[in-house]
Design a protein that fits this description.
By secondary structure, the protein is an alpha/beta fold. The protein has 21 helices and 22 strands. α13 runs antiparallel to α16.
């Protein structure tokens, strides 16, 4: 069958022809109604399928003219339209004599079925008799104009709606564009080859480059050199495969610094699945990395503190044995030289070891501060040997002290921490050779100077100065110098806690710290501590001529056999009756079975099975008047956890000397 197709869209004609020719129909294609009439009058087709909206002559006029021709009106006329789709349009077309009114687009099978139905309803070979009632021209024009007017109104509404939609779309785009511009994360868009086309301000700030400097370049300009070729190869294989890549990328800032970022790269595909762009979103995780590093460092410090506390406990037990035994031997009148001299050296070494243990606990911050009337010169001198071990042979440690230095109220172990941290910092600032100077002096601060030094009170202060002629710090570094975990040393060489610890100690003791530094010149740290005003300040302690004695009964609980033995011997020599056991349960048994009075319990704090506090509670049920002295080689923090560092609690820290033990026992018994 030969079919005339009328449509101004070539694509529509091509598709419709292909569908009909697949059923072995012959098609003739024209672009408008005028061409259709010219062709049909010369060579009438068996069927016409026409669009409505066309230039020159539309489908309505074509159908009316078609039905006016006696020859053509017998040929079935099908409307196939996408523009006119309502019921009024269909009624108008059928009233003019059209055989069918079909709406684009239709699937091939339903379309062919509709055509077949039209042809079956027509007379043989697709012809039909002339329509008995022809539509008058005036009626046609009236209905035609109504259709055009309605379509014009619809079109106007569509245009208005489209304009509104366009405005909403433009507003949405502006909003999205503004959001992209204001986004805190860096956003970069590249073409499929990786050439940068656009970046938001956050990305420019992350990298240090302006948008003009970035556009037209490849992101490889930001490579840090940290990631290997395999890392980038895997990245490109992922995104070129149309998949989203997510991972950590370390970029290099324009100024050379490294910027760790959490990066997501997403391919943007067109409707055919072809990559058009890559969108990269980068979150700067520098602060997150810093916090993670700080957490790891804090965990290390906590582990170190726990280790120090454990080591100190065992070490203090052994030192107690050494110091008490040497005290006992040194108390013998028949001790002759050179044995007395040797014992004194052993005793002094034990005492220095005890001091070293306290420094270890102070460093790990597991020992509570115990401020006392302190000669700063003496503390510096006592630490010079230890400080010398912290520096190399090519660095000279110099101490310039003021005579008749005023005294201060501070825990000497905290001075040890201050000196250790400042000397280590000075050592690291020197190029390997140089001098670190420690200096003490008296300083009277007037109101203006005191106010300038972090609101100190005016008056007398002691000044401790530590200076070097090392690399120094710039102004930006100085601003952060006292921040915890801030360090300018390379990774693994500094905790960032040194100056922060010094600052904390100074403030705790109502002092002030002043830091002056210049790049290439050096650094000076000045610490002002308030003068301790006391009428007896500086007066040397008078050694007690006699050790307090007693005749009471003392029950000793200590799980370390060597310590228990020497404590028992010491107390017995002082006149006391001593009952003892290594096991708390055995101590309870002794208390239960002993018929006489027990005046004092001397117990270790941490023991297996039952701690000292629990043992005290058990014994008080049997002996309500029992007094208690706790002893321990653990740090103060551990003792505090046992609830013992409360007012009224009698406690003695290991290692102790005979005089210290005797004094504490007598003091408790007499309280």
């Amino acid at each position: 069958m030969r079919i005339l197709l009328v449509d101004d869209e070539p694509a529509n004609l091509k598709l419709l022809s292909a569908i009909l020719e697949s059923e072995r129909h012959e098609t003739v294609c024209v672009r408008n109604g005028q061409e259709a009439l010219l062709y049909a009058t010369e060579d009438p087709p068996e069927l016409i399928i026409a669009d409505i909206l066309m230039p020159v002559m539309d489908g309505f006029v074509l159908c009316w003219a078609w039905m006016q021709d006696p020859l053509l009106q017998r040929i079935p006329f099908i409307f196939y339209t996408a523009t006119y789709q309502n019921e009024e349009d269909e009624a108008f077309c059928l009233a003019m004599g059209a055989s069918a009114f079909l709406i684009k687009p239709m699937e091939p099978l339903p379309l062919l079925a509709s055509i077949k139905k039209v042809m079956q309803e027509a007379p043989s070979r697709g012809l039909r008799p002339s329509s008995p009632a022809m539509m008058e021209e005036s009626r046609f024009l009236k209905l035609y104009n109504e259709r055009l007017a309605n379509k014009l109104i619809q079109r106007s509404e569509q245009i208005v709606t489209g304009q509104l939609a366009l405005q909403e779309s433009e507003a949405s785009l502006r909003l999205k564009s503004t959001a992209l511009e204001a986004a805190a994360n860096g956003i970069m868009i590249t073409d499929p080859k990786g050439t940068i086309q656009w970046a938001n301000p956050a990305f420019c700030e992350q990298t240090g480059y302006t948008l003009a400097e970035l556009q037209g370049h490849n992101p490889r300009m930001l490579k840090s050199g940290i990631h290997g070729a395999a890392y980038y190869r895997q990245l490109w294989e992922t995104i070129l495969g149309g998949q989203v890549w997510q991972g950590e990328l370390i970029n290099r800032h324009k100024n050379g610094t490294l910027i760790p970022t959490e990066t997501v790269i997403t391919p943007v595909l067109n409707e055919d699945g072809v990559i058009q762009h890559f969108v990269s979103i980068k979150q700067d995780i520098t602060e997150q990395k810093r916090i993670q590093a700080e957490l790891r460092q804090a965990q290390k410090m906590d582990a170190l503190g726990r280790l120090a506390g454990g080591v100190a406990h065992d070490f203090n037990n052994m030192l107690s044995v050494i110091l008490l035994n040497t005290d006992l031997l040194l108390g013998r009148e028949d001790l002759v030289e050179p044995y007395r001299k040797h014992l004194l050296e052993i005793h002094q070494a034990g005492q220095r070891s005890a001091d070293l243990t306290q420094q270890l606990l102070a460093f790990s911050r597991k020992q509570p501060a115990q401020p006392r009337n302190t000669d700063l010169n003496q503390v510096v001198v006592e630490n010079l040997k230890m400080l010398s071990r912290l520096i190399t042979e090519d660095i000279h440690l110099q101490f310039v002290k003021q005579t008749e230095l005023w005294r201060v109220m501070i825990d000497p172990s905290q001075v040890n921490q201050i000196l250790t941290n400042l000397v280590i910092n000075a050592r690291d600032a020197l190029p390997g050779v140089g001098t670190i100077t420690l200096e003490t002096s008296n300083a009277h601060l007037d109101e203006c100077t005191a106010l300038a030094l972090a609101y100190l009170r005016p008056g007398d202060h002691v000044l401790l100065t530590v200076s070097d002629k090392g690399c120094g710090m710039d102004a930006a570094t100085l601003e952060h110098a006292f921040e915890p975990f801030f360090t300018t040393k390379r990774e693994g060489k500094g905790t960032g806690l040194g100056l922060a610890t010094v600052y904390s100690i100074v403030k705790q003791n109502h002092g002030a710290i002043y830091l002056h530094s210049e790049v290439g010149v050096g650094t000076t740290v000045k610490i002002y501590l308030p003068r301790f005003m006391d009428e007896v300040a500086g007066a040397p302690e008078r050694p007690e001529e006699t050790t307090p004695l007693g005749t009471e009964t003392i029950l000793v609980a200590e799980d370390e056999a060597a310590v228990l033995k020497i404590v028992r011997t010491t107390l017995e020599k002082q006149g006391y009756t001593v009952l003892s056991a290594e096991n708390p349960l055995e101590v309870c048994r002794i208390s239960e079975q002993y018929a006489g009075p027990i005046h004092l319990l001397l117990t270790d704090v941490v023991m297996p099975g039952m701690n000292g506090k629990e043992l005290q509670t058990q014994l008080l049920r049997m002996r309500p008047d029992l007094k208690t002295v706790f002893m321990s080689g653990y740090a103060g923090e551990i003792i505090a956890q046992r609830g013992l560092l409360m007012e009224g609690t009698h406690f003695i820290q290991k290692p102790f000397r005979i005089r210290d033990l005797a004094k504490k026992v007598r003091e408790t018994l007499d309280s």
